[in-house]
Amino acid sequence: MNDNNIRENDYSDIINLPHHVSPSHPRMSMLARAAQFAPFAALNGHGDAIKQTEQQHVDSFNIGITDETP
After folding, report:
1. In Å, what is the CA distance from 19 to each residue of 22, 30, 32, 43, 54?
2. CA-CA distances (angstroms) from residue 20 to 10, 27, 54, 66?
3. Is the pLDDT of residue 53 over 80?
4. Contact 58, 65 (CB under 8 A)
5. What is the dihedral of CA 57, 70, 42, 39, to 10 degrees?
6. What is the rounded distance in angstroms from the CA atom of residue 42 to the CA atom of residue 59?
7. How confident is the model at residue 5 (pLDDT cuts 50, 70, 90)?
8. Would the pLDDT of 17 be above 50?
9. In the predicted model, what is the mean pLDDT of residues 19-43?
10. Which residues of 9-48 are buried (b: 16+ CB within 10 A; e: fewer)?
11. 3-state percent helix, strand, coil for the chain, nearest multiple of 5
């Protein structure tokens, strides 16, 4: 690799620029951003499987964990 390629790929021309803030689009909330990716969950049903396994352990140990337990 020559010095020209290194200079072109180190982003030194943009690394200290301020973050762009759109004057016409309001900033999206974290909840709205997270909701955009929800349909693309890689493991559909994984949360339900975890809850089911948790319930099996609760039942087998009879430790009384409820949904209200933090």
Report:
1. 10, 17, 20, 33, 44
2. 20, 11, 45, 46
3. yes
4. yes
5. 130
6. 29
7. low
8. yes
9. 86
10. eeeeeeeeeeeeeeeeeeeeeeeeeeeeeeeeeeeeeeee
11. 50, 0, 50
Q: Output the six-digit token pair for 41.
A: 């969950």
Please give the pLDDT value at position 8.
61
3-state secondary structure of 43: coil
The two structure tokens encoding residue 50: 């975890």
Is-contact 64 58, C-beta < 8 A? yes
Whats the size of the chain, residue-wise?
70
Residue 66 has pLDDT above 70, yes or no: no
For residue 64, give the DSSP letter: -
